[in-house]
Protein: Polyhydroxybutyrate depolymerase
Amino acid sequence: MRRLALFLPFFLLLVTACSSPAKPKPDPTGASDHTIRVGALDRTYRVFRPVIPAGRKAALVVVLHGAAGTGRQAAKSYEWDDAATAGGFVAVFPDGVRRTWNASPDCCGVAARDQVDDVAFIKALVAEVSRSIPIDPARVFATGISNGALLTFRLACETTLFAAIAPVAGTMINPCVAPAPLSVLQIHGKDDQTIPYGGGPGRRSTSGDGRLPVKIDGPAVEALNATWRKVDDCPKPAVTTTGAITTTLARCPDGRAVELIAVDGAGHQWPGSDGPGPIASRLLRLDPPYMALNATDTIWRFFNGV
Structure:
C-alpha cells in the first residue's frame, strides 16, 4: 500500500500530461515549393509566407518571371522575400512552361506555340493558395517583367482577380475587351530596345510565325497608360520629374490609381536588381543593372496604397 501511495502522484502527473491538449503548432513560414494539376499539366510554383498575426488576412502578390526565368529566380533577383517579410504579405512565384508564358497567340515561345492556358493556371494557383493561407481577396495583386508583364496585362483583361497590377518592361499585345477597372502601375525604361518605350516591334520580335513565336508589337507606353486611365475613368494626370524619373499619376474613382514611372537611362530590366550576373547577362543580351529606382519597393508601396 505504501508503495502504491508513493507512486500515485507520479502516475497522476503522467495521466494529466498525456490528457492535456497539445499546443497548436504555429503556421509554417518561409519558402515552400508546390505543384498543382491544371488541365493536362502539372504546374509548379513557389510560395513565400511571412508571419501572419492570428485573425488577420494577408495580401497576396503574384510575381511572374520573364522569358528564360523561373519563379525561384524572380524571387531571388528582385528580392521579393525580403519585401514580403517587411510588408507582411504573401508572395507567390509561378513557373512558366519551358520558362515562357502564353501572353497571346504570338508570344511567347513554347507556351504560346502550345497554347498553354496560363490564365487558368494563375486562377487555380490563387484559389489554392487562398485555401491554405488566410488571404484578403480584395488585396490580390500581380506583377511581372517582360513576358511576365505581357501576361500580367492579359490577366487584367481576362479576369477580375486583381485589385492592381504592376507590369515592368511590358506592353499589351492581347485583345482586351471591356476590362474591369483596377489600379495600374507601369514601370518602363526609356532606353528599352526589347519592348520599346515608343511602341512597335523590339529587337527580339519575330513575325510570330514558326516554331517558337515571339511577336511583340504593342502601343507606346504612354498611350497604353492613357488606355487604362480611360478604363478607370480617371482625371487628367499630374506629371512630375525628379532626376531621371518621370512619374505620371492619376487618382481615379473608388480609390484606384493609374501611374507610369518612366526611367531615363534604363533598358529592358527590373530597376534595382543586380540581374543574374555578368556571364548570364552577356549570354542573354541583358541591359546592365539600373539602381536609381528600386522597382520591388516601389511596386509594394503602390499595391499597399490602393
